[in-house]
Predict the structure.
Amino acid sequence: MKRLCTVGFVLLLLVGLFVGGSAQVKTLYWNLNTEPPTLDPALARDTTSMLVIHQLFVCLTDYNSETGEIVGDLAKSWDVSEDGLKWNFKLREGVIWTDGEPINAYDVVYSMKRMLAPETAAPSANLLWVIKGAEDYNIGNGTADEVGIRVLDKNTVQFELRNPVGFFPALATRVCVMVPEQVVEKFGSKWTEAENIATSGPYMLGEWQHDDHLILVKSPTYYDVANVKIDQIYNYMIVEATTAMSMYEAGKLDVLRIIPLEDMDRIKTDPVLSAEFYQADEFCTYYYGFNNEKPPFDNLLVRKAFASAIDRESLIKYILKGGQKPAQTFTTLHIPGHIDGVAEGIGYPYDPEAAKAYLAEAGYPNGEGFPEVTLMFNTSEAHSTVAQFAQQSLMDTLNVTVKLSNQEWKVYLETCRLDCSQIFRMGWCASYPNGYDYLKRNFYSTIPENNANYKSEEFDHYIDVIESETDPDRIMEAFLGAETLLCDTDCAIVPLYYYTMNELSKPYVLRSFAPTINDIPYFKYWDISLH
Amino acid sequence: MIGYIVRRFFWVLPVVFVVSSVTFMLMHAIPGGPFSAEKALPPAILKNLEAKYHLDDPLWKQYTDYMWGFFRFDFGPSITYESRTVNDIIANQWPVTFMLGLASFAIAVGFGIPLGLISAIKQNTVVDYSAMWFSMLGLSIPNMALGPFLIWIFALKLRWFPVATWGGISHVILPAVTLGTAYMARFARFTRASMLEVLHEEYVQTARAKGVPERWVLLKHAFRNALIAVTTIAGPSFAAVVTGSLIVEQIFAIPGIGRYYVLSVTNRDYPCIMTITLLFAMAIIVMNLLVDLTYAFIDPRIRYS
């Protein structure tokens, strides 16, 4: 009997220890919304994949969302040659993969050249084209040896650029992600499965049950593991916003990022939910573009009239209700290159009288003789609501008829690519923290993505300055010049608002709400208090 | 019988040919491709991607390559989910959908047929009216309303079941009820109608006249014949529930194949669209064959040669 008691006591003690121990494990319950299409940094082209990849792999540099600065990650420091072409990155020493292999300059060269190899078919490889020889290799006209990335010593890597791109470290936050050569070469396309993968970031892949859940576990080999506080991140993949909302209310999710519109009013009045509700800026711009070559929008005065007839403040206050910020310039808030159009008087604020005057000057007094025009957007309730608001405003102010038309997303993109309608909806989110990404990739006259058919030598010149100038003042001047042309002088587009993200976040989740690229949460800085 | 089955199987080939070629033509006719995105890819990058997935081959070659693979059970890579092949996706997600479908079907048959039976026997009574009212309700409530409603009552308020996601048996109940309710209603109404029809047949009257106990008349003479009509809808219903439902899988966050089917069209994931369409078509063919064979067992008048 006595022995039985002892055994029982020991068992109880063990259970107690186990329960006590497991209570210390800090787990964050997160919703990825969907299955990440890939965990291969070279192949990712969507934000869900990028979110997970960011937790798993170290990058050469990183974005500090609190200060807006570019900081080192794998790179400890860097310097640039006087002509701005050669960037030397000194790497942190002693960084290792989860399989114990070291990460050094050879891994950087391997990862970047793998991304550029035509057979990898990396969708974002073009971001690396600023490197000398990279474009030629990527499109099959050159060899890997001609690419300007080289190992200087085990812990120093050099990038030789074709232009003195001053924002190269910012660009590197998005594309210079290291992959483990030993694993990639061994497992091929299956290297990202949980049983094969080796990672280097603050978290490692504990489990990946496709389309169901993905568990990230704090990585003991991460170089800054001492400062990572949350032990485990359990990621659900719930597509349906109402279901995720129910999960949040049932305490199964700690953060909810897509809030069902129908729950918005309830959240704002509910004492508990309203205290857990946050609005944070996002690096995205919502805009209406004109097809600058299609009549009547080939007429600058007509474009100006339309731009002045939309009341952004009312749109945000009565229709969107999400605390969005009115936009008069294209590059979004907080991004280097952002120009505050409202403060600087660039772009067209709502001014019905001016709008009428522009239209009259264009030959259509009070809208007389103005043809019916089409505003097109991709099928979605939200876009439709904004379009109806614009349609009504334009009709009320200018007495013109605007026909609304919508198409399924990919059909819409194809329509825009081939022959965009007179007015079209589009948005842009920063790929990396620099306005160059906004302006060059949408409106440079020779690029195929220029849906607005905007062609301006002067604008192109400003972009050329941004990518080849080293003096920060002259770069800023070029940004100002380019935005002024795009949104004011030529009025090629009408920026409507900068996005905000509405989030519900449990009070015990200790975290920042500062905007990040692609809204990637920096779990490594987050914590969970006892609850 | 065997000859009949073999002949029916040969018919699968032309059906697969028609379904595959029409699907292939349609999916390539829709504007936009797997790589269209808001951040449009430069033409050179697009060329690399198309070369990787052989989308730069002539269409006839893409079709024949795919079909050659299909008959060897190699369904190709998924263009959207880069580290997974379509075989991986089918092997991962279809069993989940199948389990859910099986549970829904069990609910549909297990509750639907008795409900119809009772209604028919107690025709024009309160029992009949309430059973039919209930099944009408089941038919008219769409899944996208029933699902969240069940979650609200049984997961959020009563906390009997989890809100969503896939796991043990408790995760199956709510989605299976959501998916099965409409089918249950259909079974109930079909059973009732065919029972009523059969009950007025002369041989049933004869059986009654001979003094066969009423229970035997109902179960052995009437119900067995009424089952023929029910079997006719059972086949396609079974094929429908085991091929998944976008809405139910989405509401309950279930990693099933139904969701993939719709997503693959949205994403223009060509190999995925082709494979799932063909497999679903085959599932329907097989179910129809099974239904035809079942007739022979239920109705002695039907024989195949």
Notes: Chain A touches chain B through 57 residues (CB under 8 Å). Residues 445 and 455 of chain A are 5 Å apart (CA to CA). Chain A has a mean pLDDT of 92.
